[in-house]
Design goal:
- By secondary structure, the chain is mainly alpha-helical.
- It contains 8 helices and no strands.
- Helix 1 runs antiparallel to helix 6, helix 4 runs antiparallel to helix 6 and helix 7 packs antiparallel against helix 8.
- About 30% of the residues are buried.
Length: about 170
């Protein structure tokens, strides 16, 4: 299985978990989230320790948002899935940039379409703001990890250029 296909599988399992959670199927939601996390851990075991702090910080902020919007009363598994989703997204930060770049184009398009659909078609289960927050919880961890990866690559290339000039 190629790296891009594995990343698609991870994100597909996480989205499936979020879909199950909003429909009230707690056990399948948890199994899909854990399955996505295990697939990510299979190829990125050593990166797990390196990104523990950002995963904890981002997850803590997301859990606070979940608490303030009362999404935990609508979908109790959303907190667990959010932490797993954040871990999966940060584990993928060390994959090849070309893979992440292609995936981000796809994911950003899907996120934009979901925001537009949410604005056009009102949700029966969620209010407007809850739906926007729910979509953000699914897609923003990947966006944040991608931005951090771009910043890391930019600083690395800057240091390489500075080192080459100093020689």
């Amino acid at each position: 299985m190629k790296q891009e296909q594995r990343l698609l599988l991870n994100e597909g399992l996480m989205m499936l978990g979020f879909a199950y959670a909003i429909d009230g199927y707690h056990v399948p939601a948890l199994l899909a989230g854990i399955g996505g996390f295990l697939v990510a851990m299979k190829g990125h075991v050593e990166e797990g320790r390196k990104y523990a702090y950002p995963i904890l910080v981002i997850s803590f902020m997301e859990l606070i948002i979940i608490r303030f919007t009362n999404l935990n009363s609508i979908a109790p598994m959303v907190g667990v899935l959010t932490v797993l989703n954040t871990a999966v997204c940060f584990l993928w930060m060390d994959s090849p940039f070309s893979v992440m770049d292609r995936m981000m184009k796809i994911m950003m398009t899907i996120m934009l379409m979901m925001y537009i659909i949410t604005m056009i078609i009102p949700s029966m289960d969620l209010g407007f703001m809850d739906a926007i927050v729910y979509i953000s919880l699914i897609f923003l961890p990947m966006t944040i990890s991608y931005v951090l990866r771009c910043m890391k690559d930019a600083s690395r290339s800057h240091y390489m250029e500075t080192d080459a000039v100093m020689r």
